[in-house]
Give the backbone structure.
Amino acid sequence: MGNKLGIIIAVKDEAEAILHDNFYSWNKLTDNIFENDKAILALCGIGKVFASYYTAKVAEHSSRILIMGTSGGLSDQNVGDLYLCDEFCEHDMDVTGLKVPQGVTPFSEMKSAVIKKSSDEFKSIVETSAKKSGQNLKYGRIISGDLFICDPVTNDSKRTLFEADLVDMESAAIAKICSIIEKKEVLALRYVSDNANHSAAQSWQENVKKSSIIFNSILKNILSC
């Protein structure tokens, strides 16, 4: 049970190609959870709370969790870039009023805002599978919070504070759960769908289906290893 690959994707559009590919022979456990003999996939929905809930569900079956989905680029990232991320920050965890650095959860074991928990082996598997799919990976740090960033001022502030490349609304919460459970690893494959600016909403809608096809190709290679 614990050796299945855990896959967490926020919304159905991002997982469309994966869910409809006969390669997987998915068994639908609930409206949001699908399973086969090699993987368990959860559609977690938007935001940190739902992401945390479904991470706990997936973690019952998986020691390695791969997050897949779209992200906003915070700087000069190009729409269509594919990033492999192993560093995560929760940008809306702000207890600076108690003199705690932003991104750090107080009264916890966190010493840094950066959450990181993955092995070189796990990274190598994803990298090799992406290469087989003809995808050139980039690498960066991703920040997450319950905020859809769509203005340049907020963009610049968050990017500078956390030295981040990408932003989404789930990944850091998933990584945070993995960081407190023994023997769990987490990586994220994120497709840049927008640049976290005034045109972010329209850009996301146009690019989400493209990302689904790419994720499907890479995931098939991972599960064929």
